[in-house]
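Posted in: Protein Modeling Q&A

I'm a second-year student putting together a small comparison for a lab meeting, and my supervisor asked me to include a predicted structure for Response regulator transcription factor. I've never done this before, so apologies if this is the wrong subforum. The sequence is pasted below exactly as I got it from our records. If anyone can share the structure token output, I'd also love a short note on what stands out.
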Amino acid sequence: MSIKVLLIEDEKNLADMIAFFLEEEGYITERVHHAREALQLFPKFGPDIVVTDLMLPEMDGNDLVDAFRQHSTVPILMISASTMLNDRLRALHNGADDFLCKPFSLKELDARIKALLRRSAISYPDKPAKEDKPLENTGHVSVNEYRRTLFVNGVEIEVTHIEFEIMKELYKYPGKVFTRNELMDRIKGSERAYLDRTIDVHISSLRKKIEPDPKNPRYIKTVWGTGYKYVT
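Accepted answer (user: helix_wrangler)
Welcome! Here is the predicted structure, written out as tokens:
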């Protein structure tokens, strides 16, 4: 199965170098240099993953991610010359699944892409139908691990891949207190790349999506000084 990558990078030489490398690695790659081109190409190309620069002509990369997130949960890897923590946090909060600072190794780019794909449904296209069922329904929230979908009161909620992984781990073990490090280990394994506070950003986003009152969470509880737990 060939993986389709939509690459959005306004530096033509860099875009050509990345595209050449990815194609040599077996990916099907479409590259564009402007956000508007990406929005037009996206539904036609149907990428399995998006790699986009943060600073783009016509539209900020975060706004582009937001536009994609209106109708898709495709994995998104943000690349940027910025090393500012606030830029990384904003990108993740807006819906990007990973953030890679320039300059970077093309091998690392490939590793990040593979890591995101492993955590997406594309990694499991041939599982039997009997596995296509939610985890035990606890009422307000239910999780379908095979389809990687989250439901709140029976309504499907769009979440990023990292948000889904966090919710899945919390959901599997109601009442268990997870430290930030434990959640990072379960989600990223040996490929951990984020600061612990990044977990807080994803938890905050999840609460906005599943909690009746995100400021007074009922389901994802903070255990001060330790981490988080899910309460049914």
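A couple of things worth pointing out for your meeting: DSSP finds eight helices and eleven strands in the chain. Residues 122-138, 189-195 have pLDDT under 50 and may be disordered.
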